[in-house]
Specification:
alpha+beta; 4-stranded antiparallel sheet; 10 helices; 20% strand
Length: 358
């Protein structure tokens, strides 16, 4: 799932091609799931002819600020959403889709904006919003920052990081695992699975560590890393080839490949990641808060007393301590969607709405 750095990259792309440009034309496809509380026709009608005065982002959501009367587009990528400019490959998350193409209009597109300078008869730039798994959301909001989904979110590590005292207070009043809290968008907006694991790795905190059991030093380290990891990833425009070599992100994806076989959850595996003393780091995968979590065994340890207490907690209690969030802005929704799909598999074509090109 695209997280804060990848969504900021998308917002930056729209700023570079669209700032002070007019939306001359909007092509849409009907999708009653992705278009939330609006229709594809209403979306196109309300934004056509307006000028892009700004592009903002909060958490994993980005939005266009348009001139004139009317609402503004508020967009969420979900699991597989991305942008694509005509003539170029889509701006992807981590690695390009297996069948990435410059074909136009692109497959899985929900809308295409034709952008050009106001009052000038020049060729327009076309940018498409794609969403293969249909977990993204397209909304229209009068005041994006003051309306859901953004108004329901917690702090943004780049835009609205609280001071250390308030951060500590927000963590210590909870008893769920720290990894589950970091994924809760009503606590830290924009932090997803890889960012949370990266933060915990650099802070030397085990993902199952209970929030109310963290020490003062651990809280301070977490506070520094939540902002630091996001800031560095944004600085390099979410280009993972420019991430530091000692980041867990560079080593977490090839689970089991070092041994020539796929490791199961909970198995240990030695990667090229090095410990501070130069020795090989051992990466282990566990499930926390419904998500696969990677951590380094030698650096992220649970105390024996805490480990004994942790085994007594159930997954139901863990999730009950988290705030209730909405739609695909939460990690929990994605988890629920997967469970339902596993219980009752259907032909994807049978449930796909009939698409109409506008």
């Amino acid at each position: 799932m695209p997280e804060l750095p990848e969504v900021e990259r998308a917002a930056a792309l729209l700023r570079s091609i669209g700032l002070n440009k007019q939306i001359r034309q909007v092509e849409t496809l009907e999708d009653k799931i992705v278009y939330a509380e609006t229709t594809h026709d209403e979306f196109a009608k309300e934004i056509t002819g307006r000028t892009i005065k700004g592009v903002g982002r909060y958490g994993k959501v980005f939005y266009l600020e348009l001139d004139g009367e009317g609402r503004h587009p508020v967009l969420h990528f979900g699991m597989t959403g991305m942008l694509q400019i005509r003539g170029k490959l889509p701006v992807h998350y981590r690695e390009a889709p297996r069948k990435a193409s410059t074909d136009w209009p692109p497959r899985f597109m929900k809308f295409i904006l034709h952008i050009g300078s106001p009052g000038e008869d020049e060729e327009t730039t076309e940018v498409a919003f794609l969403d293969a798994r249909r977990l993204g959301r397209i909304r229209l909001c009068q005041t994006p920052l003051a309306e859901p989904p953004i108004s329901n979110m917690g702090f943004d590590p780049i835009l609205s990081m609280p001071d250390l005292a308030d951060f500590n207070k927000g963590v210590l009043k909870r008893s769920c695992p720290i990894k589950a809290l970091l994924l809760d968008q009503s606590f830290s907006a924009g932090v997803g699975n890889w960012v949370a694991d990266e933060v915990l790795y650099h802070a030397r905190v085990h993902p199952e560590q209970r929030c109310n059991s963290l020490s003062e030093d651990q809280l301070k380290a977490l506070y520094q890393q939540v902002r630091g990891v996001c800031a560095l990833a944004v600085k390099v425009n979410a280009d993972d080839s420019k991430f530091p070599e000692n980041w867990l992100f560079k080593h977490r994806w090839g689970k089991g490949k070092g041994k020539g076989k796929k490791a199961k959850k909970g198995e240990q595996d030695v990667h090229s990641l090095k410990l501070p003393d130069g020795g090989p780091a051992t990466i282990k995968w566990i499930t926390v808060g419904g998500r696969t979590s990677a951590y380094v065994v030698e650096l992220q340890r649970l105390s024996k007393s805490f480990a004994a207490k942790a085994t007594e907690a159930t997954e139901e209690k863990i999730e009950s301590e988290l705030s209730s969030l909405t739609e695909s802005e939460t990690e929990v929704v994605v988890q629920t969607t997967r469970k339902r799909a596993n219980k009752a598999p259907k032909d994807p074509e049978s449930s796909r709405p009939r698409k109409k090109r506008r």
